[in-house]
Amino acid sequence: MYKSVIVGTGPAGLTAAIYLARANMSPLVIEGPEPGGQLTTTTEIENYPGFPEGIMGPELMDNMRKQAERFGVTFFTGWVNEVDLKNRPFKLQVEGKGAIVTETLIISTGASAKYLGIPGEAENVGRGVSTCATCDGFFFRNKELIVVGGGDTALEEANFLTRFASKVTLVHRREELRASKIIQDRARSNPKIEWALNKTPLEVVAGQSGVTGLKVLNNVSGDEEILAANGVFVAIGHHPNTGFLNKQIETDENGYIVTEPGTSMTNISGVFACGDVQDTRYRQAITAAGSGAMAAMDSEKFIDSLEPLLIVK
């Protein structure tokens, strides 16, 4: 019997683990085969407080893990195949470990950015391909960029990137955009944004130093062309990693876990959510870490209210 189990090891999960361990809660952290979250695919991070010279994403996550280990956090690597949240204590079936029972559960499994799935994309992540304008826009000062997408996020990121780039071309496979009118109007009035509509991305083109352009298909003429750019920002959305919950917890229409405003509490007493798995707005390392602290404190307060005292394995 564990007092608390954390599923996920991004900034939210590791921060929750640090807080719980320092509160003598002896948490178990279950991490997937590729632990660390999206920051492990990020190069240099310059907007995380405490690192005036910046820090590499994998290094930041490694430091967080070492800090958690220092306070005695137990880690296990494996997929959570099944959960039973109908009654407390909650039961988790973990590949390679079997059944785990816990009084509280913190879900910090994050959200994964959707990619185009075209040649040259995956191998150039961190070399000019990005899914986060806020994270990486600073590195493209006076460069030409491409944003792929047609929704609110794509146009907002295009607008944001014009703070740094000399030109931003928005590529969308249709003539009509999905973005709201007010956001479209804002983007269309931005002189740094150019439009490449009715064009389907085919391949990210790159050289030894990184991305050099995007090959697209003109859906009207059938011709192929290469749009020159130093970076390609993919903004076609995210999907929260909540499939393993099998719809046992309240989510919004896109699958993000719903939490009580100002807390990490879900609709199930004793289950908490933090980080990108419940954040549809900010999706930053610093906000994820903050929500992880909230989840730990909410979990600790919940445990303190339980009687009798729990025996921890």
Automatic annotation (TrEMBL):
The record's free-text note on cofactor binding: Binds 1 FAD per subunit.
Keyword Membrane: no
Cofactor: FAD
Top-level lineage group: Bacteria
Enzyme Commission designation: 1.8.1.9
The keyword NADP appears for this protein: yes
Keywords: Disulfide bond, FAD, Flavoprotein, NADP, Oxidoreductase, Redox-active center
Catalysed conversion reaction: [thioredoxin]-dithiol + NADP(+) = [thioredoxin]-disulfide + NADPH + H(+)
InterPro entries: FAD/NAD-bd_sf, FAD/NAD-binding_dom, Ferredoxin-NADP_redctase_2, Pyr_nucl-diS_OxRdtase_2_AS, Thioredox_Rdtase
Short name of any one Pfam family annotated for the protein: Pyr_redox_2
Domain FAD/NAD(P)-binding: 3-292
Family: Belongs to the class-II pyridine nucleotide-disulfide oxidoreductase family.
Subunit structure: Homodimer.
Record NCBIfam families: TRX_reduct
PANTHER family per the UniProt record, alphabetical: THIOREDOXIN REDUCTASE 1-RELATED-RELATED
Name of the protein in question: Thioredoxin reductase
Organism annotation: Paenibacillus helianthi
Taxonomic path: Bacteria, Bacillati, Bacillota, Bacilli, Bacillales
